[in-house]
Write a structure and sequence with these properties.
Blueprint: H1 5-22, E1 32-38, H2 43-62, E2 67-73, H3 89-98, E3 102-107, H4 108-118, E4 128-131, H5 134-143, E5 147-149
Parallel strand pairs: 1-2, 1-5, 2-3, 3-4
Amino acid sequence: MTIDRRAFAALFATLAFALPLAAPAAASDKPHRLALQISDGDEAKMNAVLNVAANVSRYYSDKGEEVEIRIVAFNAGLNMLLADRTPVATRLKSFKQGMPNVTFDACENTLDSITRKEGKEPPLVENAKRVPAGVVTLIELSEKGWTIVRP
């Protein structure tokens, strides 16, 4: 079997030109995306989630890379985002001021259950936003390529 050198050279030149165009973008070209689950009412777990968020945010900031972090609270973990009972209120305020790349999602399903049980809806902390269902939010974020972690 003989190889036509001109055909091989033409093929090589074509591939050498095309491969860089087809290569995936570097990870730093788009923000890293992390979703953290909090579903336990334990203050230590809430602080662990906040520690992970702060450490990841700082790590990528120091590298000059963007990171989006969403903390998704449901079940007993929703207590983290309830203004009248959160044990981590001071830390949540500092996140609002110092880490705008960290957002907090409050599960409406859990909030509705608490409202029925207590007869009134407890207030959310200022920087929390409602999502229809915490677990569904995590599923959808995962399907969009987010990394999901439960510290």
